[in-house]
């Protein structure tokens, strides 16, 4: 479980094909503190397991399903990524509950720069519309954000200068794909409604 508050930016230093999967080595510093093999780290919002680490890098392996469903398959050497260690039960939950289980990908369709930062519009597959509401929480590339506006199958988020400085969004461009994880509470409520005894027809 994560909070969507990015701890640092890492850099992919190597990519190795392993059958249908890939092994990534990522340079970092903050997230390595206390990290051991088998720990989970959110990499651009995707929960990946640390298989090895050094004083300045850690390694993760993404299986074919992860490469297909997320933007992890697009990582190349030099790619900058948002990193967050799994939350501890004693931590403050400053963002929202994030599982690191990417639901789908979206596409950045517009970026508006102003004195307060950026406004960014993202399109998403329309079948996920039921899990998103205005002023609700959403996780974009591992970052906990608030839906500022919602129009059919696209939403707007506001990125303050601090967020741009601390995440990989500062290099985001129109047309770029991003990982999306919708609010887990919305998903449970939706499931409860559609599968409750009152709504199940024989």
How does this structure look, described?
With 202 residues, the protein is mostly beta strands. The chain is 12% helix and 42% strand. It has helices at 64-69, 161-166, 184-195, and strands spanning 8-18, 21-27, 40-43, 46-53, 57-62, 80-85, 104-114, 117-123, 137-140, 143-151, 154-159, 177-182. β1 (8-18) and β2 form a beta hairpin. The longest helix has 12 residues, at 184-195. It starts with 7 loop residues before the first strand and ends in a 7-residue tail after the last helix. The mean pLDDT is 93.
**Class by helix and strand content?**
mainly beta
Our count of helices gives 3
Low-confidence spans: none
From the N-terminal CA to the C-terminal CA, the straight-line distance is 37 Å
* Helix content range: 10-25%
Query: Over the alpha carbons, how many angstroms does the gyration radius reach?
Result: 17 Å
Per DSSP, what share of the residues sits in E-state strands of 2 or more residues? 35-45%
Tally of DSSP β-strands = 12
In the sheet with the most strands, the strands line up as 1-2-5-4-3-6
Order of helices and strands: EEEEEHEEEEEEHEH
CA-based shape: globular
Largest sheet: 6 strands, antiparallel, barrel
């Amino acid at each position: 479980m994560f909070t969507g508050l990015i701890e640092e930016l890492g850099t992919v230093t190597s990519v190795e094909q392993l059958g249908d999967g890939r092994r990534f080595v990522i340079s970092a510093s903050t997230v390595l503190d206390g990290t051991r093999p088998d720990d989970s780290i959110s990499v651009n919002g995707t929960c990946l397991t640390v298989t090895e680490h050094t004083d300045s890098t850690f390694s993760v392996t993404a299986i074919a399903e992860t490469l297909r469903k997320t933007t992890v398959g697009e990582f190349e050497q030099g790619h900058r990524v948002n990193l967050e260690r799994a939350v501890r039960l004693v931590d403050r939950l400053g963002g929202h509950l994030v599982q690191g289980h990417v639901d789908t990908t979206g596409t950045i369709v517009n970026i508006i720069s102003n004195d307060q930062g950026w406004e960014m519009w993202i399109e998403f597959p329309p079948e996920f519309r039921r899990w998103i509401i205005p002023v609700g929480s959403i996780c974009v590339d591992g970052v906990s954000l608030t839906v500022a506006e919602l129009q059919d199958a696209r939403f707007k988020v506001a990125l303050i200068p601090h967020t741009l400085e601390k995440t990989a969004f500062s290099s985001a461009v129109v047309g770029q794909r991003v990982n999306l994880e919708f609010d887990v509470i919305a998903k449970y409520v939706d499931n409860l409604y559609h599968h409750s005894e009152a709504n199940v027809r024989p």
